[in-house]
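Sharing in case it's useful to others searching the archive later.

Someone asked me privately for the predicted structure of ABC transporter permease, so I'm posting the question and my answer publicly. Question first, with the sequence:
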Amino acid sequence: MSDTLIREPVRVGSPVRVATSAKPAALRSVVRTARRNWVVVISAAVLLIAIGFAVFPSFFASGDPLQGVPADKLQGPSLAHWFGTDNIGRDVYTRVVHGAALSLTATLVAVGIAIVIGSLIGLLSGAAGGLVDAVLMRIVDVLLSIPALLLSLALVTALGFGTLNVAIAVGIGLVANFARVMRSEVLRVRHALYVEAAFASGVRWHTVLIRHVLRNAYAPVIALAAVEFGMAVLAVSSLSFLGFGAVPPTPEWGSLISEGRNYLATAWWMTTLPGLVIVAVVLAAHRIGHAVDDRSGR
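And my answer, the predicted structure tokens:
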């Protein structure tokens, strides 16, 4: 008796089932990266919380940051007041949350000013070369020779008080770093074959700069912006601490520390806890910035 091979008939048009993983490959890659770089994950969480403070302050602290209860003044940290209360009974945690909006907004404005002005200087310097390059780089060298915080302090003294003036002063103090990085990248990119080919084909120079040079030179500048964000937070808070920021009693991170310095012996939480918030944000921004820097391959 011969063996017969029985085959199941194949139905034309029937769907073919392909075994798929429960998690997409991209999600698995993110999970693996998070497990390896847990410090980066924690840093990102800290920055997201700080941004949440700035964008949705009432969600994180529903109280009034300007009104206090005199009977509750100088109370230590507790379940009712996580960061304690200040000398007139205001909740310090509420003031930290509501102060994030001004502090982080000033930081973003400062970094934005530094990116725009510094990138333009670096782009023109690297692309033009010759006398233009020499003059612009000597100006950048002068800016680099002055400590950024000292330069910002001099500028804000001339501009006057206010959060916007603090942001402008800090941004100008950071311009030189962005200009040097952009110039170095432009010098690297402008001699590439595709740039030479664009010039040889008759494309206008400003089109080549924007479409080819700038497009391939901005990545290290973005990485530098992530690194300098933490320094900008520290500089803005420092100028606010010195009294150049918003007019009291409007809360800012630097001014909160300044308000509590006279009560260090009796109410350490007034300076320590807002200071720890600034430290956490600065360290988180630096860690994220270095991660972006490593990712960009600089």
